[in-house]
Write a structure and sequence with these properties.
253 residues; alpha+beta; GMP Synthetase, Chain A, domain 3; 5-stranded mixed beta barrel; 7 helices; 12 strands; 25% helix; rod-shaped
Length: 253
């Protein structure tokens, strides 16, 4: 019989119906418990002979588990636990040191998890290895991975941008961008860095264009600025009688 710790469960003494067949030391193996139709990943703690009169749950040895399989299963379990806790984080890389029994997991977020050490200790009780969390900011993760941006090119922070500029909602407003937040954010979850590159152009155009929703005096009376399109080079005024008129922005034609 063998003494095991079930990955994702507790400890169990099992009676094997066949022999363990491993290339080296049988540390992690897949077993199929009697009455079940799926395999479980377990860590073999000790092998001993069956005591007289001892009744144990039966299991069949399926195969030895590879390090890649162990890491994938543990990583997925961590993802599931974080999701159940309502933590809005993404799991990055994970590393498993079988000799030391340590699972290191990167989590990607805007801020660190509160009491991450206590959370890791709780997860360790299910995985039967020591768990260590490493915080990685979304921007740094995006720069390392190198996704494609909305423009279809590789992210600037991955290719050439070293110092990420500060970008604010006010920049989006001053560029007449009123889309949903997810339309204006990059792969890292921050507002697009492009907004800072284009800001000087909009600051220059602001000297030539009336502010959106502003009430201005014209030769035809008071009018409200109802549309501004600096890229197309025009703005639209709406007069008190309801009529609208398009004006070309000076110097854009």
């Amino acid at each position: 019989m063998i003494e095991t710790s079930i990955i994702g469960g507790g400890f169990e003494h099992l009676l094997l119906t066949n022999r363990l067949r491993c290339k080296g030391r049988c540390s992690y193996v897949f077993l199929r418990f009697e009455g079940e139709n799926y395999d479980r990943l377990v860590k073999v703690l000790r092998i001993r002979t069956l005591k007289e009169g001892e009744k144990l749950k039966r299991a069949e040895f399926v195969r030895e588990a590879s390090k890649k399989e162990i890491l994938r299963i543990m990583k997925n379990m961590v993802k599931g636990i974080l999701w159940e806790r309502g933590l809005n984080v993404k799991i990055g890389e994970a590393y498993l040191d079988l000799n030391r029994g340590i699972l290191t997991v990167e989590y990607v977020s805007d801020r660190q998890i509160n009491d991450a050490r206590s959370l890791a200790a709780g997860i360790a009780q299910f995985l039967h290895v020591r768990v260590e969390f490493v915080f990685l900011h979304r921007q740094k993760y995006a720069a390392r991975v190198g996704w494609l941006g909305r423009c279809g090119l590789e992210l600037c922070c991955h290719v050439w941008l070293k110092n990420v500029p500060s970008v604010t909602q006010d920049m989006a407003r001053r560029q007449y961008l009123f889309a949903a937040p997810d339309k204006l954010t990059g792969a890292c979850g921050r507002l697009l860095c492009c907004l800072s590159y284009e800001m000087p152009f909009y600051e220059e155009m602001a000297k030539k264009v009336p502010r959106l929703n502003a009430i201005i005096d014209t030769e035809k009376g008071k009018a409200k600025v109802v549309e501004v399109n600096v890229i197309a080079g025009y703005y639209v005024l709406k007069y008190e009688d309801g009529k609208k008129e398009k004006y070309e922005i000076e110097g854009t034609s």
